[in-house]
Amino acid sequence: MSRIAYVNGRYLPHGEAMVHIEDRGYQFSDGVYEVVGVKDGRLFDEEQHLDRLERSLGEIAIAPPMSRSALKSVVHETLRRNRIENGLVYIQVTRGVAPPEHAVPPRSVPPRRGRPPPPPAGATPLAGSPTAGSPGAPARQPGSTAVPRSGCAGTGASRTATRPSSGPS
Known about the structure:
Blueprint: E1 4-7, E2 10-13, H1 24-28, E3 31-39, E4 42-43, H2 46-59, H3 68-82, E5 87-97, E6 141-146, E7 151-152, E8 161-162, E9 165-166
């Protein structure tokens, strides 16, 4: 069975699921992930895991990439497409694509394809970062993915994604 991932609004074969080289999750670990167990096709403590994901995103000022109900639909559809009955779901949400600068953006922006936009005026740099005091910081393109693995499923990538994972069965 081929694995299917959900990345930035699209279900893709696992081998085609990719994030941009300038995704802040890749460059700076600027994102959040949550892992949820799956037993007999049901997510274990689903609501508590989604509560924690939302809380974690709020702590680092990343807007959720979609509504909670939409995220639940993506995760459940990823599980269905990968026929995961027992395993794990990985949910990953990043701030998105931007030039590799250390400044944190003033807000999350919707995902888009192509080159990152130029830095906006008024972005707030991280205290003590080499770019502190710079006139602007890059706009961010938040991302997420979901990817199930054999025995596991997941959500993560550059704004919202789900992916299959090879974990204990």
